[in-house]
Amino acid sequence: MLRRLLPTLLALGCGLLALGWGLVTLQRIFTQEREDARAQVHSRSAALELLAAEALRTALAQRMKDHLPALNAAMGDPLQPAEGYYLLFRGHQFLPRVDWLRDGTDTPAKAAYERLVQALEDGDAPAPWQERLARLRAVDAAMATGSNARISAAVEALLRHHAVHPLPTDQELPFTLIAVEHLQRGDETPPLIRALVGEGLPEELGGMARGAGLQRDLLRARPRLTRDDFDFLQERIVALSLELGEPSDAFQARVREAGAGALVLPDSLKGPSIFGEQWYVEPGAEQVRGLAVDLTVLLADLTRDLRARGLLLKDSEVRLRPAGVVRPLSDPGLEVAMPGWAKAEADIEARYGLKTLLVAVCGALASAIAALAVVAQQRKYRFVELKSDFVSTVSHELRTPLASIRLLGETLERRLGRSPEAGDYPTRIVRAAEGLHFLVENILSFNRIDKGRWALRPSRVRLEEAVGTLRDDLLDAVQVPVELRSEVDDVELDADASLVRMLFANLGRNACLYNQRSPVVLTVRAYPQPGFGATVLFSDNGMGIPPEEWERVFDDFYRLTTTGPEVHGSGLGLALCRRIMGLHQGSIQIASSSEEGTTFALTFPETRR
């Protein structure tokens, strides 16, 4: 068998190898197509992200340029707002302002203020303030005369001495505060005295170095004052500003703003960066400038701009990817979220999955076709072998009775009149002819049923009559004594009488052939089955059938291998019995089998009443 299948297996193997190579190549093409499509989508995304990053860099640089005057103003003037600005110059942070108060509970400025007040009342001034208090009294005397020229000259003399002979902060601020309090006359206060509160002195009177105004001087002196001193001076300066009508809102706002906290940046910034997603910083040679930004608003504006230019769809947006605290603007980590791209990638994967599935299905179908071809070829050769075996068996079976008939006929012709032993020759001739007839009838009936050309002719068949017919058939067909027992009562079947006779005849002849006992005992029992019909048990006392052969004995041309004398037969008996039961919509199977005999169970459908 294997030698016959070898050419087919070689051809199928070569075909499968060629097909496999083609499918693998096709799968590689599909994979490359997927990668190319994904790369195209990703390249579009990367191009938009580069464009968005460049637009963000431009927007932040322009915003820094717009805010640079305000940042420089906040650096030079402590009354200017500094919130949202950052300036680090030579390692010292100027903005946001981190002027924390000096630790301690002493109040030298308050004590100096109280001593100066007492000195003005007593006329006895300590050494540091003798000249200052003298000039202050001169201004007071000039103001009493009402001469503007004398007042201006006295005030200028006081302020020039104040600029040329500076005192420590905890002494300078109390003296300036007392001077303004002592000389203020409401709306008639001299302009230079009023300038000591808010605007500061002009440059020719030392305004750049000293006398920038009490409000500014107090803010600059903050790190050198304790909390008690600072609060004392602040309250006096605010009250004085209100009396003179000088604005103090900016001063009070800067008091609350000062010491808000330091912004700690990494040691090395290699270019403009976003820090903590809240600050935009630009490092320079000696300084680092920064600007507080709202990235959410910036990215929203950037998204609207790209939509207006037709580069983004309505449901798309520019957003930040998760990253560290510092984001260099060279690569800020922007991401363009476009649902259409996600859908495109999903479609790419879906198409790739479908193509892969088709390749797998083609491979599976090719394998299945190859397997079916091998099975079909194997069945073909098996059928040829069965056909050959059948022809050989039938030829042998036909040759034997024909030879017997011929030999017995010739012998009968020569000796019938002269030998008494020839008296049973006619019986033996009839028996051989009957065996030949039964074999031919089995073959013809099997062929007609197998081809679907048997027209079933159902009628009422009494089992008792069918058993009687079997007794007559066996009496003429077998040479061994047969004891036939019947327990069928009056059970009737709705069946084809000729087929029932052929069914029982095949079961009976098989029982006689595969039996080494004498007599052969056959038992037929019938059991009506309510709602179905009847079950007929056909038992013998033969040699039995091994359990593994119970189903195979019903195969076409299958002959049971037995020990002892050779058993002749065509291998069609039980196969024909199963086809007869199938034609009646019934079944036949081996109920039990042992060395004591075999019992076949025949189930017939319900009879008509």
UniProtKB/TrEMBL annotation:
Pfam families: HATPase_c, HisKA
SMART domains: HATPase_c, HisKA
SUPFAM superfamilies assigned: ATPase domain of HSP90 chaperone/DNA topoisomerase II/histidine kinase (SSF55874), Homodimeric domain of signal transducing histidine kinase (SSF47384)
PROSITE patterns in alphabetical order: HIS_KIN
Keywords: Kinase, Phosphoprotein, Transferase, Two-component regulatory system
InterPro entries reported in the protein's UniProt record: HATPase_C_sf, HATPase_dom, His_kinase_dom, HisK_dim/P_dom, HisK_dim/P_sf, Sensor_HK_Regulatory, Sig_transdc_His_kin-like_C
Enzyme class: transferase
GO molecular function, one term: kinase activity
Record keyword Cell division present: no
Reactions catalysed according to its record: ATP + protein L-histidine = ADP + protein N-phospho-L-histidine
EC assignment: 2.7.13.3
Residue span, Histidine kinase domain: 393-608
Full protein name: histidine kinase
Native species: Corallococcus praedator
